[in-house]
Structures
1.
Amino acid sequence: MLMKEVVMEQAKLAKQAALKMAGLTTEQKNSALFAMADALEKRKDEIIKINAEDVQAAQEKGTRQNMIDRLILNEKRIADMAEGLRQTALLPDPIGHEDFEIVRPNGLKIRRVRVPFGVVGIIYEARPNVTVDAAALCLKSSNACVLRGGSEAIRTNKKLTDILIDAEISCGIPEHAIEFLKITDRDAVIAMCRLRKLIDVIIPRGGAGLIARVVEHSTVPVIETGTGVCHIYVDKAANLEMALKVVLSAKISRPSVCNSMETLLIHKYIANEFLPDIAKLMIENKVELRGDELCREILPNMKAATEEDWRTEYNDLILSVKIVDSVEAAIDHINRYNTLHSDAIITNDKAAAEKFQTLVDAACVYVNASTRFTDGFEFGFGAEIGISTQKLHARGPMGLEALTTMKYLIEGNGQVR
Amino acid sequence: MLMKEVVMEQAKLAKQAALKMAGLTTEQKNSALFAMADALEKRKDEIIKINAEDVQAAQEKGTRQNMIDRLILNEKRIADMAEGLRQTALLPDPIGHEDFEIVRPNGLKIRRVRVPFGVVGIIYEARPNVTVDAAALCLKSSNACVLRGGSEAIRTNKKLTDILIDAEISCGIPEHAIEFLKITDRDAVIAMCRLRKLIDVIIPRGGAGLIARVVEHSTVPVIETGTGVCHIYVDKAANLEMALKVVLSAKISRPSVCNSMETLLIHKYIANEFLPDIAKLMIENKVELRGDELCREILPNMKAATEEDWRTEYNDLILSVKIVDSVEAAIDHINRYNTLHSDAIITNDKAAAEKFQTLVDAACVYVNASTRFTDGFEFGFGAEIGISTQKLHARGPMGLEALTTMKYLIEGNGQVR
């Protein structure tokens, strides 16, 4: 069979499973999740053994050490994955919730209820824990899934899905609820993205290149996740002590993640006081600063920021800094350069805060807090599929509900139109 | 300028307007809608005069009479459009509604509120009333819009948007809230679909060809509307008198629309009684019947249905008919051939009804009523953008809420992570 046909065949099997899964009860799903957790722990030696082969192959290919670190599974990491499965079982079931009901003058009773998507396609990169995580969240939301992991983890992912599928089927979950693509060819991603009507939604989880490729080629609806050029604006009415603490933490607490700050905006009235203080702290913490002209008037040694800097997600200990005239100018800058992810204002001026929250176009707009809180767990969702940076369907941190759609159920007694 | 650049330029202007529109009040929007209605009525002679040019050009091109009928504007139709604007003003404002609030253990207060998309792209065909309708719904939901109408109505649409824009601006709505593409070139549609980050969502309203072209080329998220291969299944436990009434009406009341029935499924236990009765009624009403083998055993004169018939949206006085063994067989047939639009069961068996509603994958699943009710007005939404047949974001009849997204507003007092 051609690669394309193999992918389509697997998606068809997942679709058939999905149509049955709409009838699963919460108890069936939860007992399967517990069984999957037990199976991972029971078969940990198999997993560790096969994972060593992936690690060795990666080392032979000269893969970077931090990538290899992400790839390695040990007892602790397997226990964490099992714990994740059990935590997912404990979350409320997103399916069946009724959020709208109306009885029309003609007597028709219309209800709207949460139902699964059907088949969710997830395309991701190296970390094998995403395999377990994605399978768990899709099952809990009564979706079948087609999983496509990175080639580095292919042996580990195959083993993990084999174990999960065995455990699931033994609990009465339909066969093919999890379909793992064994094809590591990059074109398999494109093939998946064209399976409109078989796959209901595709969620790419990975770098900007992967996401752009999926968006470009997909006819299946996509939920875009990820990129974050996040801003903090320190207003003239800011508590500067608080601003120092929040701004520093938003840059250095974990610079590699999407919710960390990339650009700092400072109101001109406080720049002479605030900029030298924050610059000192940043430099002590090994952060490279790149400023606009006005910054460099205050701190002439600062490197000059280019147009490119304003649009860059550094994911690193680098910060671009700009001095602005007003909250309006800060909003304009942010709406020009942000990625619709997370932006913050530090201010004690309620009117400025409200204007900022109303006019900044982003999934999450903060007042007096770090952008680093944009996260499904921090928001209390108990899970995170990713952070949506598009506006359709889901925006910001996505919990289980983002893996559902709705359906209208209408009851009558012979009404015609 | 190249055509692509013109389209991009207009989208950029709309984007700038959109960023300001997030701050509009309900009163501002409603007074603009009333002013737009008044302006259409006041300038009706201008509209009728220019519309006659479109009609004449269409006649000279040999356009079909039913297309020309849709194109014509007269006093009555202009009054209807104005009334539509006023009705939109009276609808509840979908913006600002808060549907989620939580205070986290660290003191962060997280709220989720409804906000506009930003720029909505609407691509539609001949009817000029869609221009007014789309502009009204986008304004009421605080969105800017880029409108692309069919070439037959180009002069009328230009005039209508000129009038609407004048009225809107006089009420303080930002300039460029409505951008109408004056380019009738088909490639303008493709150019629009590639403007990711400038246009937030594209809604095609029109035939299957238009929708397929948009889905194929768009990198902007699309809400697919339209196609309906709707089924009614008459169960063995049906009230057959009710079934005759509902089935007949669902086929003949308005065969050209997407929510009319295209395929009838009949349980084998009642087929001998029900099929001859419904066939007689259908034939009396000029409906052509196409049946499977079992139907033709009962009524040998019936034309044979082909595989193609099961997937066809006739939009005409044609009906395919199939006899099935069980509710499960009916569900399987529907899940294979439907377009996720609307399907119905006629039964007095509660268990069969529940199974049907749970397992049929469609936006609207009916018990004992006609599929013809799938409509924003019939559902009590007061408006209809279209009927979504995809699962992302909106499903089924879309009211004003479907033109909104949400945003998280987070307030803290210096929290860091």
2.
Amino acid sequence: MKILIITADRCDDSELFYPYYRLAEEGWSVSIASFAKTKISAKYHFEIEADMSVDEVKEGEYDALLLPGGMAPEKLRQNARVLDIVRAFNDAKKPVAAICHGQQILISSKILKGRKATCYPGIKDDLVNAGAIYFNEKVVVDENLVTSRRPEDLPYFMKAFIDMIKG
Amino acid sequence: MKILIITADRCDDSELFYPYYRLAEEGWSVSIASFAKTKISAKYHFEIEADMSVDEVKEGEYDALLLPGGMAPEKLRQNARVLDIVRAFNDAKKPVAAICHGQQILISSKILKGRKATCYPGIKDDLVNAGAIYFNEKVVVDENLVTSRRPEDLPYFMKAFIDMIKG
């Protein structure tokens, strides 16, 4: 399996590296795309080199997409290429996972109308205004979409995402 | 399954919470013991309440033990009760996992003589002086013992530990 993560500076540390290590544990290839192929500095401490810029992403080569939270999604949602990638995964019914503020990218991608989802409480109203059906649950699964609220949900978030990828 | 983690302030964030979330993902009960039943502040950001003091631990109730690294092990290795707990798990052949500087506790527990192990490079000489057979590998398994070098080894460390617990 090939999994794509899209994130950027000031992402939440745990929401980037827990999935990054966890997907590696499955033996899968995990690539990180960002605004450029440079170092990403998470909010608190974690640093990692992006594998490519979002412009270089060949979305057809990946089996699933994951969007960490933190303060990165507010920047990423303003990038048209990021939104195109999200829509490409969703149109192809490939698993798309977002946690915490990662759902801001889903909102801007306009793929949430009528879909069950959760998110960080601070952006719940935005999720609802985007047409989603909001649930205050650790993890919400709607067809190819997996969403969670916050870092503490990571065990449930990743289990649901990995189970979905395994089919 | 019931898993015990022993750690304290200034542990490495990822070496505490990656295992903590990962073991929860398996659906297992995870308890954290420390010097007291108080808040633990990891080196960079992560905080969590300890479930109990090491004096309250009933080691016979747990199936496996995990020791994160960071700067906590140098303090914990000076606590006789911590060392007794480690020896109790090891004597019972229950899985014992340590990563990075967590091995300082294994050294002081005197359970390493003739055993294959790895650790953070900065304490390699101490591991060897304690009688261990050192390997510079992502994860080293010797009977009930699982050791790794650093946070980047976490996917391999946790896979080996979980596989061992599952038997």
